[in-house]
Amino acid sequence: MAEVKPPDSRRCSYFFLYDGSKVRGEGDPTRDGICYFYPEETPLDKQDLLCGQLAGVGRCVSELSSSAVRTLRLRRCKFAIRMKEDLFWALGCSMEVPTVSVRELLDHLIDLFCFYNGSVRQSYQLNSKESLAAEWARCLAHVLSGPSELHCIFQSVRTVDLTNVDPLLLLKAALILQACQRCPLVLAGCVLFRGRVVSTQMPPQLTTKVMVHESDTYSKTQRSSGASTPSADGGPVSSTAVFLTPSELQFLQAAPVDKTSRSRFTPEKDASPKKTRLSRTLSDTPSLESESSRPTSCQSPEKAPFSPSMSGSEDSVFSPAPSQSAAGSPYPSPLSPVRLFSNGGNSYETVEGALDESHYHSFYSSEDGVSQIHSEGDGSAFEENLCLNGGASGGGATCGTTPEPRGADCGGDPLRDDTTAAGDVGVCSRKAEGHKAEMRQPPPGSCAFDSLEESPLIPMTLYTHRVNSLVLALLVEPCFMSDTASMEEVNHSSLASLNGLEAHLRAVSSAAPGAAGPYLFAHYDYIQSTLTTNVSGRPGGAPEHPFVRATSLLHSHFFDTETLQEAIIRSAGTAVYGTRSVAQETYFQQHGASMRNSGIPNQQDSAFSLPSKARHRLLKHGVNLL
Amino acid sequence: MTARKSLLKVILLGDGGVGKSSIMNRYVTNKFDAHLFHTIGVEFLNKTLEVDGSQVTLQIWDTAGQERFRSLRTPFYRGSDCCLLTFSVDDNQSFLNLSNWKKEFIYYADVKEPENFPFVVLGNKVDVTERQVSAEEARMWCQENGDYPYFETSAKDATNVAVAFEEAVHRALAADDKADHLIPTDTVKLHRKPRSATACCS
């Protein structure tokens, strides 16, 4: 049920937010600048010391190199760093955690905070330090609450066990979401069952953020009373204010949903809801005649329709034909990305480009200079591609065109962590040298930048409707909650199906999971940000630890070396095989195989049979390595 | 008499496209949507009614009519208190399939006494002008198969929908009463003997 566990100290030793603007003069105490420090029980002196040192080093290095610092090492701790104006964040993890994962954790944490609280600077103007400290604690708990260490290495979205659920039920969930989108105030949504995704129309990053609210409300209802258990009829509906980045909004609006811009301007509408309705029948296409003639205020030609990546094939099959609607949904809000970019399509690009560039000059990578060259060349090529698809479209949108390994994740930036590279670990790999940067190009409009850079956040509302263990979560326009007609429409179109889906999924999930085989595996899908694994992550999972460790090392290597496709990492007793493609990463360890390993290359070495074993074994988990 | 059931499960069965979902939506939300997608598996809505002064929650289960959804829907037949066999008056095949639906229901719902189980038959889409099934034919079938009540409904213009559900509720409650009446008479005898025996001993 996506319970929030206390942060795992292995995964996070320190986290703090430091506001440099509070400490200007020589005599100003450092602690005035500390907005939040985890662990909260850390003695103030130590807090001062750490904040002062890291912020000082960070500031110094960034001034010298005129680029942002992304990672710092202090003794046995690895700190991901983020700086924006006077704000300074640091998240410290043990050295075992891959650098890329630490950075992703920090980016995700900040994004999460901004999603529920708006921009950091503004929220500190509006709220007390204490209440925001509670917010940081909440976000931190969620970011670190993955069921296993693997979920910490791969920031993944948890989904229902797809091998166990009838695909028709996934289709059913996707149809519920589409039916809700017939209401023009509904942007997109996802269906969750017991804290796991059944279907989503949102990019993985956004889905993860939405799930936080779901698990919060769930634990709240669990705690508050056993008596008022949600009943199937009506179901408790809740809502909360959230903030989207322009690129997230852009992505959601780019999805092929038939909506009229008209009803946005006049929410009282009823002008022609029938006509604009999306048929739920497969063969039907939305009637365009009345709307297509309408001139739209947005001329952006770029909005090619994309299927949200997560709902996969169902969506691409069952989505209606691309309609005028995506291009015709300008917001009344002046913050609308349409307005932002329509008059200066390039402006965003330039900002992105500059960012990318600065990203490559980082503390560590500036040593080798290679990355810098790549950043410029590849960056521009990518931006061009981007421009075709939509000036400022979100990371997820690019999934449609460019298979990009770091799909929609945050801060998948190209800083190379040379400090943890090969060297001391015995990696035997078919590794081709030659670093190319295009694969690790940070996703354009990656939310990490949105929330921190100039782009303003757009207020939205997160509406959730719970039916027992099933939750329908929708991102809606803020006016939705006061529009009873729309609420009723959404409720009517979804309630029966939600009831049914809940009944179906409950029946499915009661089936016991099959016993794990004599092997361990982990399979990460970049596009959907999903992790499939038989690693339990239970506290007593000591035998799993070497596998997790090897996976973490290999993951770092894959990240550092784009051309690396397969690798085996081994000790005297066992070996772990890792392979990756543009869309996925897979790790496999066979138990009980006697390792015939004489220390010199040997054809009889059983480690070399791992790839074929992995291919064979993982097929039944739905992982195709062919 | 024991307290009446407060939750009644009523299930709609029939060929795909005869209007089961529309009938349910019309009855519960009083809305009609001509563009509903096939139901996948099952869905349900609750409606609270007052019957003879007591509150009854009617749980209406709508099922997928298409053959390919069979394995998804059949597990949910169990525990039904009444079955609404539905066909479309403009589709003769859907009428001919009624017997199959009845068989499928009795098999999967594990009905103990099929001859006493309350079925109600609905001929939907009477708003359509070109009928393929006459009211007489339908009544005849109902009579021959167990004297089921028959309603000609239209989810589109709300004809007879509420009436049909009310009849279903009454039949279900009546069957329930009958069962209440029958089962205790059997069990009472079994239970009384040992009880009186212990009373004697002590």
From TrEMBL, chain A:
GO BP term, example: vesicle-mediated transport
InterPro entries, A to Z: CCZ1/INTU/HSP4_longin_1, CCZ1/INTU/HSP4_longin_3, HPS4
Residues of the CCZ1/INTU/HPS4 third Longin domain: 518-615
Any Gene Ontology CC annotation: cytoplasmic vesicle
Polar residues bias (residue ranges): 218-239, 279-300
A GO molecular-function annotation: guanyl-nucleotide exchange factor activity
Top-level taxonomic group: Eukaryota
Region (Disordered): 213-239, 255-332
Biased composition (Basic and acidic residues): 259-273
Domain CCZ1/INTU/HSP4 first Longin residues, every copy: 13-118
Compositional bias (Low complexity): 319-330
Protein name: HPS4 biogenesis of lysosomal organelles complex 3 subunit 2
TrEMBL record, chain B:
EC number: 3.6.5.2
Keyword line: Cell membrane, Cytoplasmic vesicle, GTP-binding, Hydrolase, Lipoprotein, Membrane, Nucleotide-binding, Phosphoprotein, Prenylation, Protein transport, Transport
Single GO MF descriptor: GTP binding
GO CC entries: cytosol; late endosome; lysosome; phagocytic vesicle membrane; plasma membrane
Membrane association type: Lipid-anchor
Catalytic activity of the protein: GTP + H2O = GDP + phosphate + H(+)
Keyword Kinase included in the entry's annotation: no
Uppermost EC category: hydrolase
Family designation: Belongs to the small GTPase superfamily. Rab family.
NCBIfam families found in the cross-reference section: small_GTP
Annotated protein name in UniProt: small monomeric GTPase
Species of the source: Fundulus heteroclitus
